[in-house]
TrEMBL record:
This is DHA2 family efflux MFS transporter permease subunit. Residues 12-511 form the Major facilitator superfamily (MFS) profile domain. Keywords: Cell membrane, Membrane, Transmembrane, Transmembrane helix, Transport. It holds the Pfam family MFS_1.
Amino acid sequence: MAAKTGFAKYIIVITTVTAAIMELLDTTIVNVALNQMAGSLGSTIEDVAWVITSYAIANVIIIPMTGFLGEYFGRKTYYLTSMVLFGVASYFCGASDGLWELVFWRFIQGIGGGALLSTSQAILFDAFDPKDRGIASGLFGMGIVLGPTLGPALGGYILETYNWSQIFYVNIPICALATVLTLIYIDRKEGEGERKQEIKIDYIGILLLIIGIGALQFVLEKGESEDWFESRMIVTVSLMAAVGIIGFVWHELHTEHPVVNLGIFKYRIFAFSTMFNLVSGLGLFTSAFVYPVLVQRVNGFTPLEAGISLVAPTMAAVILFPIIGKRMGAGASPIPFMIAGICFFVFFGFYSGTATPDMGKWDFFPMQICRTIGISLLQLPLINQAVAGLKPKEYPAGIALSNMIRQLGGAFGIALANNFATNRAAQHRSDLMANMSTDNPLFNERVANATKNMIASTGDTFNAAAMAYKQLEVAVARQAYYLAYLDTFRLISIFFICLLPFVFLLRTKKLSPEEAAAMAKAAAESH
């Protein structure tokens, strides 16, 4: 497909980047609505969490298959079908009257949304000349960062203004417009979708992928709420994940027509880039998860305030990504960008570990700017490195696997953050309770003052002391979780510190402008 020019190019940029943002935004927009959903559907928070889990499971199952499905059905046909499926499922999500009906349609929405990520990236690259594809990488990388970060802000606004069903309905006009623009402005490649008779479907590989990756995602999403391996269900599903993944890897490496080309892991650059994608996904999704929980639980922010406080610093990505993309397109080495990005993210984690309970929205701005700069500097080189050293026909598999690893990194990070924060909160509570003793004069003084305040405010002299103790217990719990979340930010930094020494394993020989252009052209033609 020839590169586009003028108005058509900008329409394709808007369509594909918006589709990617919409898909990733739906991974986090629901997080702030769980309480309202639980009340409306008559369910517990634990059960409503399946609304998030089902979408994530569908995503990680379908993403590695997008290269195969695009080749089998034709990329444009598959993209259009996925867009329509996402929009239709969004409508039925909003119209659902019961929890399990909603969970089912969220799974279908995740199946449609999974294609929007990798296929949008491929179409966007095709719209640019080889010399400008660094800019295309920058624009797509911007969508990767904006999606998960803007989700809580948009979700908070919708909840305060309307109700939870509008979280899903907002997708429908965007899908409809993107579908029309795709029909008009995105061309089919020559011979697209005409090789069905030649392509053998790897049914065993697809089944093992669904079992292995689906079960793994389930364990990561539900492990904390089910008390991990104390639960027979988690043990059973973990065994399913192990059998499925091991069986999938063995089968894909030994079958003649694999649904996912795992042979590309033989390339050193790609193999190590997946490790970076895993940690990058962990940092991106976990930081976007922990921060809103901290400021709502400790600093007293509303969901809307928590979301809005993320918007302004995230806008820095809108400026940074095209600039970095242009530099990458001009042949700049990715290594300095990645080192700087990791350092910014390490600084962000330790800086966030100094937050205080009385900080306001703008007090968090410098910390979040560091996060945005770190992700911007790291994410874009990773998008390029995902295909560095691969053969042109292997690029779709490389892009799809990289996107899946990033999503799994996010799921692993959120599960880890939940478990770590809970354990650290219990430890901090134990440490704080050690000071709450009648042998401690400062504690006795605080209880006496709290009791006087209770009597003054309620007039209840009989229950004032009990209410004072209850108030202190709530304060201890709040302080324990506050300290636990600060520890979690520091833990994220430690992951990035461990990653730093491996940066130089991603070093590749410097390409001439002609070689870089030829490689970019081959990449685009392979999508």
